Each structure stands twice: as structure tokens, then as C-alpha cells.
Amino acid sequence: MATLGNAQNTIAVLNKHGFPVRKQFGQNFLVDEHVLNKIIRESGVTKDDFVLEIGPGIGTMTQYLCEAAKEVVAVEIDRMLIPVLEDTLGAYDNVTVINADILKTDIRAIAEEKNGGHPIKVVANLPYYITTPVIMQLLEGGAPIESITVMVQKEVAERMQTGPGSKDYGALSLAVQYYAKAEIVANVPPNCFMPRPKVGSAVIHLEKYEVPPVAVADEKKMFRLIRAAFNQRRKTLPNAVTGDAAFTCTKEQVADALRAMGLSEMVRGEALSLSQFAKLSELLP
Ligand code: SAM
Questions:
Q1: Average pLDDT of 175-180?
Q2: Which residue in 19, 115, 151, 275 has a CA-CA distance of 20 to 30 Å to 29?
Q3: How far apart are CA 257 and CA 221, in angstroms?
């Protein structure tokens, strides 16, 4: 039975191992059973599933995942947590802990080796300092992933869901919405963690699309365009695009393409939807 997920047992484990919580690794351990159960429920993990957990910490959510899933692989960067995890996960025979940086981990190879290349589910209380690169790696890395259920900073969860016109709309929103259906499934206050983070948190569930909602001939070109548009988000699109080394077209060519789409040449990237970015990338030379 999962024993962690409350403040008392978390403190007992930290004291037993003399473990100093390390801020530089974004360590905020979950100490709320309701939140843990909610994450497991919303992840849709069953005994048929192989789960990748990023940053198991002292093994709190890992215990819940071991009970819900067929098999769990947990990737933890902090080597000082490895003996702690051997202790807290000792009762489970369906978990493997890998001491590595997730950003340098070949997730496709893990899915291949452990799950015969079949799609896996990712569940994590992410270290907030690397949320965006981790999400981009999971979406764009080409590993077979069915869904991603992660705790992130509340503002970042909102950014993933939002559309044109919002100040939070940007490259992350567009990447998430191209690859997955995003839904915030819980808001989690600081007092559910130890130590308490300074910011509010939210759990977001991303269900990967089998086919993206927008058809585009050259995905990479579309994302280069999106990056160019938001790297200089205050500039009009013709200025932002021609100011970016990835594009060799002229301002007139960008303006012509925008006009052909019925848009003003003064428009900024933050006003364009995903399908408009797809169309514009196809019209640009
Ligand atoms: N899962 C635990 C929980 O919910 O209580 C801990 C979550 S804590 C927010 C984030 C965890 O990710 C920490 O254990 C931290 O050491 C680990 N971590 C930080 N950077 C990492 C990286 N680059 N790769 C793998 N794990 C990392």
C-alpha cells in the first residue's frame, strides 16, 4: 500500500535518510493523498499501461503509479535520492529507477526496450525549471507517447490551453495544441507540497492526437515560423519573419502571403491561430 502522500511520512523519510531538499532540482514533494489519487485517475492509467515518471523524488507518486500500472520507469536526476527510492519502493517489483537527466534520456529507447515500442503514458509532478523543454521533448521527440499528465506551474498550464488574443498565447500553446488535446484537470495550491512552492500549480492532461488537427506540408517550417513570430512578438509578422535568420523571404513576400489569407500586413503572430500559421508557412517561399 502507498504510504507516502502525507506530511508526516514524508518528513519521516527525509529524516531517516538525512536528505536535504534541493531547490536547484525543483524539489517540491506532494503531501496530499487526494491530489495524488486525482492525478492517477485523470491519467487514465490501468494495469495494462507502461508509465514513465519524470522526477520521482522520494517515490511518493511512484508508489501510487506502481499500484495502478503494469510497469513504471522513473527517471530521477538527483543521485542522493536513489537510496531513498530503493527504500520507499522496495515493496514493488514493477518499477525501475534510472538515475539520469530526463532531457538527456532516450525515451524512445525506453519504450522500445520495456514496452515493445508500444505507446506509453507519462505522469509526473514536473520540476518547474524545465517544464517547457520537457514538454517539447515529449511532444516533438518522436517517442511513442499516448498521453501526458503533469503537474506544472498554473500559469504554464494556462499558456498551454490558451488561444490567439491572450498575452499568454505563444509557441508553447501552439506546439501543445498541434500535438495534443489539452485539459486542465485540477488546480493545486502550494500547501499540497513540501516545501511549499511560491506559485500555484495545476495538473494538465494532454491526450496525443493520432493525426494533428491541422494539416501542414512541412511541420518544421511551420514551427520555425511560429518561433520567429514569438521571438519578437511585438513586431508585425513581416518584420518578425524577415528579422529571423531561418527565413530568407522579403517583407513584401510575407505581406503578400498575409493579404492572400485576408489578413493585414500589420498583424502580429499573437493574432494567428494554428491553422493560419500552417497556411502562412505554406504560402511563404
Ligand atoms: N514526484 C515527486 C513528488 O511528486 O513528490 C517529486 C516531484 S519534484 C517537483 C521534481 C523531481 O524531479 C525532483 O525529485 C527532482 O530531483 C527531479 N528532477 C529535477 N530535474 C530533473 C531532470 N532534469 N531529470 C530528472 N529528474 C529531475
A1: 96
A2: 115
A3: 15
Ligand 1 atom closest to the Cα of residue 4 is: 5
Residue whose CA lies nearest to ligand 1 atom number 18: 55
Ligand 1 centre to CA of 126 (Å) is: 6
The mean pLDDT value of the chain amounts to 95
Of the pLDDT bands very low, low, confident and very high (cuts 50, 70, 90), residue 233 is confident
Cα–ligand 1 centroid distance for 130 (angstroms): 10
Minimal-distance CA residue to ligand 1 atom 6: 57
Reported pTM? 0.93
DSSP state of 59: T
Name the residue at shortest CA distance from atom 10 of ligand 1.
127
* 76, β-bridge pairs: 99
Nearest atom (ligand 1) to Cα of 55: 12
From CA 9, how far away is CA 170, in angstroms rounded? 40
The CA-to-CA distance between both ends of the chain, in Å, stands at 59
Sheet holding 180-188, edge to edge: 95-99, 71-76, 50-54, 120-125, 145-153, 201-208, 180-188
Q: List all residues 6 or more positions away from 256 whose beta carbon is below 8 Å from its beta carbon.
A: none
In this structure, the number of other CB atoms found within 10 A of the CB of residue 262 comes to 7
**Ligand 1, atom nearest to 62 Cα:** 1
Q: Is 192 exposed, middle or buried (0-12, 13-18, 19+ CB in 10 A)?
A: buried
Q: Please identify, by atom number, the ligand 1 atom nearest to the C-alpha of residue 128.
A: 9
